[in-house]
Amino acid sequence: MSIRAHFTPAGETARSGHDRHVLATVTYGDTARLTRTAQGHPDLAVPMTVTGGDAFREVWTVAGRPRWTLREDHAYAHDGQYLFVAGLLPEQGVYTPPVRGLYERVFALVNHLDYQHIFRMWNFVGDIIGTNADGMEIYQDFVQGRAQAFHTYLGSGTAQLPAATGIGTQGRGIAFSLLAVRGGTPRHLENSRQTAAYHYPGRYGPKPPSFARATVLDDTLYVSGTASIVGHETVHHGDIRRQTHETLDNIAHLVSRENLTAQGVDAGHELKNLRVPKVYVRHANDIPAVRAVCEERLGAGVEVKYLNVAVCRRDLLVEIEGIVPGREWER
């Protein structure tokens, strides 16, 4: 049975549902911390001001009964089929060496626990478009350390890079979470409207970002953080509505039969199939316009969470991610 996610208010106990168990949670609110809850599972809290709503939790549930471990800078939970790992790195003058070190330790843990495939990652980068002690943009500094860790873990290939999100926070330092599977066969996918991120030209930093546009696992499609980028260029500078539409156009094409079958995946979906979407908006006063576009394109019945944080380029105003559930998810 598949891993699943749902949203719940941060103040409520995370619930698993019938024949399910809570693997871990991520709390989107106003603080940064990594703890075990009273129920025992790891909870990663990231500071992302929630405008127009209360803090919330993303709850990941599994069929097996998990085991949980909390260490100094990371925590993990696994049930024999799925693994969740989360970590925190405090603010640094330069991030490349400590990011590389922490991510290499975590990738080694994934190997040690024998979960063969990382299929989804989230990277929460405080002051993402600020500058480090050497004058480099913090996102580029982070990307360089992550790329070095992935090279240690995977070598020079890109075929195993998972779906991922790299997004700002309202705090400092870096947090991350990842999901891995034992015995599954994820397929990492690209979007023919966009240049693969790991092929971005050098103008975006000394190392290109290490992620795929989506990953499909057990017929569930995990959509990476997606923005108003065509090829590798930002489009619709300064226009929040058009950037939101372009972002949704990118997702619509990504999950379409045209794009999926070209990569050997016998499936096709529509934008309205997107679930548990999170929408990251740079300027709080743009959220009503973004919400109007999302309700128009996704349908008013989809529960969307809006977060007020910076995106990884100065000219990007919005980023959107989500999941297209498969048959197992819906059972």
Spatial strand arrangement across the major sheet: 6-7-8-11-9-10
Question: What structural class do helix, strand and pairing data support?
Answer: alpha+beta
The residue ranges in which pLDDT falls below 50 over 5 or more consecutive positions are none
- Count of separate DSSP helical elements: 6
Strand content: 25-35%
Shape assignment: globular
Number of strands: 19
Please give the alpha-carbon distance between the first and last residues: 9 Å
Report on the structure:
The longest helix has 17 residues, at 96-112. 47% of the residues are buried. The protein starts with a strand and ends with a helix. β15 and β16 (233-234) form a beta hairpin. The protein has a six-stranded mixed beta sheet, with helices on one face. A six-stranded mixed beta sheet has the order 12-13-14-19-17-18. 21% of the residues lie in helices and 33% in strands. It contains six helices and 19 strands. It is α+β, with helices and mostly antiparallel strands and 331 residues long.
List keywords for this structure.
alpha+beta; 6 helices; six-stranded mixed beta sheet; 331 residues; single chain; globular
Draw up the topology in text.
Layout: E1 4-9, E2 21-29, E3 33-36, E4 42-47, E5 56-62, E6 67-70, E7 74-78, E8 82-89, H1 96-112, E9 117-126, H2 138-154, E10 163-169, E11 174-181, E12 187-189, E13 214-217, E14 220-226, E15 229-230, E16 233-234, H3 240-254, H4 257-261, E17 275-281, H5 287-298, E18 305-308, E19 318-324, H6 327-330
Helix pairs in contact: 1-2, 3-5
